[in-house]
Amino acid sequence: MTKAIFTGSFDPFTMGHLDILKRAASLFDSVTVGVLENGEKHTAFNAEERCALIARVIEEEAFQNVRVEAFTGLAVELAKRTGSDCMLRGLRDAGDLPYEQRMERLNLHLAPDIQTVYMAASPAYAHISSSAVKEICALGGKLEGLVPAPIQISIAERLIKR
Ligand code: ADP
Question: The CATH number of the domain where 157 resides is what?
Answer without folding.
Answer: 3.40.50.620
